From TrEMBL:
The keyword Repeat applies. The keyword 4Fe-4S applies. This is Methyl-viologen-reducing hydrogenase subunit delta. It comes from the Archaea. Keywords: 4Fe-4S, Electron transport, Iron, Iron-sulfur, Metal-binding, Oxidoreductase, Repeat, Transport. SUPFAM superfamilies: 4Fe-4S ferredoxins (SSF54862). Gene3D superfamilies: 3.30.70.20. GO terms for molecular function: 4 iron, 4 sulfur cluster binding; metal ion binding; oxidoreductase activity.
Length: 710
């Protein structure tokens, strides 16, 4: 594939040295620049495309109308519309940084985009069927608008539609107030409470006698505040229940303008205010079902959710904000991919790689981070480096593609318009679907690649994905881990508010100014995304393996303050007490084969353990406990053993049957049972050689059966 990069200064409004930016772009077939690419520069771009036979373009242009002109020019030269990738050199660079920083950052953004395209996933889609039932709560306008193509039920929610201006002839109107909405797309259940039942014949007796404003005519219902016990006596059909009657209504989609963000929970097919034409169009498109991109790669063979009716790892279930992951059985989780909203919460929390985000994949994010952090060459003193001009503090910023990205763009526009003094440190942005995509593996990899710091830039506030103070727990754990590694605190979360650029500038500046230069050199680490263990079947760039690889890269340049690195949730240390009887339960349950039983006891492989706690849960003797943390002394490179990956955590031997030679229990277990009941069975098999407890169950049964000598 022939790739060309084009840098534009937006008619000179971006403070960028175009020549220097071209020189800083690597690994493309040609780099060109223009003062106004979408105008006078289009003809020159077309000439370059033809001359170099380009089939992939990376263009610095954030303006939608200009992007369309550039894309049209590219397609006229035979390129596919999707073969043009755009980079924002304006709002996030030339409008908020000085020339040296903006130039350096623009070159790096182009390089990162190129690296990301090389690891772009091929698109896939899935289909989920549903019906055409739409429940609309208290909104007659939307109900009437949808009625032509959908089976619409309008739930009054305390409102009176007797004099409504909207045509509800094809709408089923239901009385009552919504108490709760459960379920998901295609399977919603709305619990509704009313004080008038379906036996009502709309005779208006109760409406006439009820206090003003406390009864509705269409549909007939009474306000919850009404406590007049004489009203039920007026009803000829006994349809009034002052204590309230509940019923359940079913729907495939729900329109509930007054529902809160937390009540919606990000569920597909659940719409809250404002009900825009775009949302109505989405509802209509989803009638009958949806076809949507397939966001996840699933490899459930390596899932640590459980085994043999024992529950293990539950990270993805707890992390998913959209109800797309559920524990179908005690030892198994199930993904409902039609409900997936592509936030990446399950993928960043999964330690084994059983669930992985397709786009951007972890490998793509890794390559973009590594490319952003490549240091300048000697002859390019302008390019970001710690010894010259440009970007002196290399801070990788994982930026949410929703509100956070919009806020940063607004800051740039405010600065360009002269309406705010917005100039902040030149963080190196990596676009993610949501900050939930970011886990400990992403942050540790950025530090291993030479970042001075990691900024997680998300929505905050009422964000449906993360909720208030969304990444506090992650940041706290990472700060503990980086401190234990000797790096100090290098991770922070930011939630930029479009209306308060000064607050973001101040907090980000304080964070960057507080960073010491990292001892980890940039440009040396290229992640493979795993552990050098041929018997480990986890896919590359799983959280556990990728994190451990990054920690090892960091350890080559630091002196840890502790032997056990705290804060990394995907690592566990197993402790086994003397209560162990060497039953194979733990080794059979372990999803990563981190435990194995040998002739002399039980061994543990810390390098493989993902802290799922299945062994602790399944141990019948309660002999196993698992503590979170990465113990450096247990890693094979720090152990002088014949098989350094394995540590003996319990010493003991299996007992062979005196008769048939089969191993049937541990010596410790046999001794314990003998001590408890030995006196009771003494002499029951006088012909046995030694104790009856030296025989397996089958041979013991034979001895007891033949004790009469027959």
């Amino acid at each position: 594939m022939n790739t060309g990069a084009f840098v534009c200064s937006c008619a000179g409004t971006c403070d960028i040295d175009l020549e220097a930016a071209r020189e800083g772009i690597d690994d493309v077939d040609v780099a060109a620049s223009s003062r106004l690419l979408c105008g006078d520069g289009l003809e020159g771009m077309e000439h370059v495309v033809e001359e170099h036979e380009l089939d992939q373009l990376i263009v610095t242009c954030p303006e939608a109308s200009a992007q369309e002109r550039i894309r049209e020019a590219a397609t006229e030269r035979g390129l596919h519309p999707d073969a043009v990738e755009f980079v924002d050199q304006r709002e996030s660079a030339g409008w908020v940084h000085g020339e040296s920083e903006a130039t350096a950052k623009t070159a790096r953004l182009v390089n990162a985009a190129n690296a990301g395209l090389e690891n772009e996933s091929v698109g896939r889609s899935l289909t989920h069927e549903a019906g055409e039932r739409v429940a609309v709560v208290g909104d007659p306008e939307t109900a009437a608008g949808l009625a032509e193509g959908a089976d619409v039920t309008l739930i009054a929610d305390g409102r009176d539609f007797a004099d409504t201006e909207y045509d509800l002839e094809d709408v089923t109107v239901e009385r009552g107030r919504v108490v709760e909405v459960e379920g998901s797309f295609g399977e919603f259940e709305l619990r509704v409470r009313s004080r008038v039942t379906d036996d009502c014949i709309s005779c208006m007796e109760c409406v006439r006698e009820a206090p003003d404003g406390k009864a509705t005519r269409h549909p007939v219902d009474l306000d919850p505040d009404v406590d007049d016990e004489s009203l039920p006596e007026l009803c000829p059909t006994d349809a009034i229940e002052l204590e309230g009657a509940e019923r359940t209504l079913e729907a495939d989609q729900v329109v509930y303008p007054e529902a809160t963000d937390s009540a919606r929970g990000g569920r597909l097919g659940f719409y809250t205010a404002p009900i825009t034409p775009a949302k109505v169009s989405a509802i209509e498109r989803q009638l009958g079902g949806v076809t949507k991109p397939e966001f996840l790669d699933l490899e459930m063979d390596v899932c640590a959710a459980g085994a043999s009716s024992q529950a293990g790892c539950n990270e993805c279930v707890e992390a998913c904000p959209h109800g797309a992951v559920e524990r179908a059985r005690i030892d198994e989780v199930e993904f409902r991919e039609e409900l997936c909203q592509n936030c990446g919460a399950c993928t960043s929390s999964c330690p084994t790689g059983a669930t992985r985000l397709r786009e951007p994949s972890n490998e793509r994010l890794a390559r973009e981070v590594e490319t952003l952090l490549v240091p300048d060459e000697v002859e390019r003193s302008w390019l970001p480096g710690r010894s010259g001009s440009g970007i002196d503090d290399a801070v990788v910023a994982f930026v949410c593609s929703e509100r956070a990205e919009d806020a940063l763009r607004e800051y740039g526009r405010l600065a360009a318009a002269g309406r705010a003094d917005v100039e902040y440190p030149p963080i190196l942005p990596v676009r993610v679907n949501c900050t939930d995509t970011v886990g400990e593996a992403h942050a540790m990899h950025a530090l291993a690649a030479g970042a001075d710091g990691v900024a997680i830039v998300g929505c905050g506030g009422s964000c449906l994905h993360s909720g208030p103070d969304p990444k506090a727990e992650l940041v706290e754990r990472l700060e503990r881990a980086t401190t234990d590694l000797g790096l100090g605190k290098r991770v922070e979360f930011f939630a930029p508010d479009p209306d308060e650029p000064e607050a973001f500038v101040d907090s980000l500046t304080a964070f960057v100014d507080g960073l010491e230069p990292t001892p980890v050199p940039a440009g040396e680490h290229e992640a493979e995304g795993g552990i050098d263990d041929p018997d480990r079947e986890n896919p590359p760039f799983d959280s556990h393996g990728w994190t451990l690889e990054s920690v090892r890269a960091i350890l080559a340049h630091v002196e840890p303050e502790r032997e056990v690195i705290r804060g990394l949730k995907d690592f566990g240390v197993v402790d086994v007490t003397d209560a162990c009887t060497l039953t194979p339960t733990c080794s059979n349950l372990c999803p990563t084969d981190a435990l194995r039983r040998i002739e002399t006891g039980l061994e543990f492989n810390h390098e493989r353990c993902v802290n799922c706690e299945l062994c602790e849960e399944g141990c019948m003797e309660d002999a196993i406990t698992v503590e979170q943390g990465l113990d450096l002394s247990l890693l094979p490179e720090n152990r002088d053993e014949e098989d350094p990956a394995w540590e003996t955590v319990f010493e003991g031997s299996m007992l062979e049957c005196r008769s048939c030679g089969t191993e049937f229990t541990s010596e410790r277990s046999a001794e314990r049972i003998k001590g408890e009941v030995g006196d009771l069975v003494s002499g029951m098999a006088p012909q046995a050689e030694g104790s009856i407890f030296d025989y397996c169950s089958e041979c013991r049964s034979k001895l007891l059966y033949d004790r009469s000598g027959e």
